[in-house]
Amino acid sequence: MHLEPWQWIFGAVAALLVGISKTGIPGIGILVVPMLAQAFGSRPSIGIMLPMLIMGDVFAVIWYKKHTQWDKLVGLLPWVVAGVGVGAIALWQFALLKTNRDILDIVIGSLILIMLSLHFAQRFLGEQLTPKSPIGVASTGISAGFATTVSNAAGPIMQIYLMAHKLPKEQFMGTIAWYFFIINVGKLPIYFLLTAINPKKPIVTGSSLLFNIALFPAVLAGVLIGKWLLPRMSQRTFNTAILVLAGIAALRLIVG
Question: What are phi and psi of 128, to 5 degrees?
Fold first, then answer.
């Protein structure tokens, strides 16, 4: 895979941001989705981004595992698996379409905006329509599984879900770290399978994995920066950053 210098720069910046998102500011990772799509194309970009995410997940799990709130994930994960299955089918089918605009971006962006709206309206709506209700857990899980499979863009959905539980920032990081580690590792064989089914439109290749290995130092720098940042942020700043970045990401996906 021959890469231009600007693609290496985009890749290094993306890897740095992924690292920061995994250990410091979760919302910032969503900015990587359009960045890599611009540099490598939407389909190859998800295969390039996934190993970066797994690298960061490993550090996040090691550092924040004692803060994990497993009760927030047990009921969610079966719905996420269902969403991953739907997303895998969508990736397979959309590879057969010829279009310049990825409508999945619009769908994902819209889902994020809906969850943001529910978060801000929680005091008026009560618990029935929030991500903590049975319907909310099911819709969150399916949406997050679908979004993470088709574009690695489930971050804002999960962030809004966990914010509804009002977790302190350390518990937030420990819970989301294990969630994404489990799901991202599970997605890797799916991407290999989809590449094997349609080798003309690959997602993960040997060249992309070598590219990821070369960018590991940038991921490592990012996780160290994030680890340094987290204890220096107030809970209010942490929550505000997540909401603002989630909103920006949603609008960016919709507008294109």
Answer: -65, -35
- Cβ-proximal residues to 126 (8 Å cutoff; 6+ apart), any chain: none
Q: Are 105 and 46 in contact (CB under 8 A)?
A: no
pLDDT in tens, 144-187: 899 888 878 777 788 778 878 888 888 999 999 999 999 999 99
pLDDT digits (tens, 9 = 90+) for 169-181: 889 999 999 999 9
Separation between Cα atoms, residue 249 and residue 137, nearest integer Å: 22
Q: Residue 152 CB: number of other CB atoms within 10 A?
A: 25
Give the integer Cα–Cα distance in Å for 202 and 189.
13
Is residue 31 within 8 Å of 249, Cβ to Cβ?
A: yes
Whole-number Cα distances in Å, 208 to 86, 112, 253: 25, 29, 24
99-to-32, 36, 94 alpha-carbon distances in Å: 22, 19, 9
Rounded distance, CA 131 to CA 113, Å? 13
pTM higher than 0.85: no
- Which has the closest alpha carbon to 131: 143, 115, 154, 155? 115
Please list the alpha-helical segments (H only) found in the chain.
Answer: 5-23, 32-40, 42-64, 71-74, 77-94, 103-120, 122-125, 134-151, 155-163, 169-197, 206-214, 216-229, 235-255
The helix-helix angle for 42-64 and 206-214 (nearest 10°) equals 50
Using CA atoms of 54, 60, 66, 71 in order, give the dihedral in degrees to the nearest 10: -60
Structure tokens at 191: 């991407």
